[in-house]
Design goal:
alpha+beta; five-stranded antiparallel beta sheet; globular; 2 helices; Peptide Deformylase; 18% helix
Length: 162
């Protein structure tokens, strides 16, 4: 396993829609293991999408206290409800954070690392992480949700990054 470098703006891979994973083979398993290692390497990291490590595939990992070691392949949000204002940052947009609107609850479907279909109903931080990482797979960054640049703030103290 290896800690992978994080891709940052203006790298074009961050603005592309990631490709669906057709076969969960050894290369996908290695990507997942390396992504989990990368998330765990820094306590400020909570989740990661494959485009953030330069791989344009629909794979995300989440490792937060209430949801450790979540792996989703080809995830999609099938239901959203509610709305809340959250403070969000991103490893691929270092040094900044902003306040954006996210859903209170989401239901996501996808496949786990073994290829089994799964559904996750989430709220609060897990819902936010799922939306944030699935946005990455669609070439969307949290800064794309800002209503104005006035909502983007420079980080003084490091906050957890999704």
């Amino acid at each position: 396993m290896a800690v992978l470098p994080i891709i940052t703006l203006p790298d074009p891979v961050l603005k592309q829609k990631a490709k669906r994973v057709k076969t969960i083979d050894g290369s996908i398993q290695k990507l997942i293991a390396n992504m989990l290692e990368t998330v765990r390497a820094d306590p400020g990291r909570a989740a990661l999408a494959a485009p953030q490590v330069g791989t344009s595939l629909r794979v995300i990992v989440i490792d937060i206290p209430e949801a450790e070691n979540i792996v989703l392949i080809n995830p999609e949000i099938v239901k959203r409800s509610g709305e809340r204002l959250v403070t969000e940052g991103c490893l691929s947009v270092p040094g900044y954070y902003g306040e954006i609107k996210r859903s209170e609850q989401v239901t996501v479907k996808g496949r786990d690392a073994s290829g089994k279909e799964i559904r996750i109903k989430a709220e609060e931080l897990l819902a936010q992480a799922l939306e944030h990482e699935i946005d990455h797979l669609n070439g969307v960054l949290y800064i794309d949700h800002l209503e104005s640049q006035d909502q983007l703030h420079k980080v003084e103290d490091e906050a957890p990054q999704l």
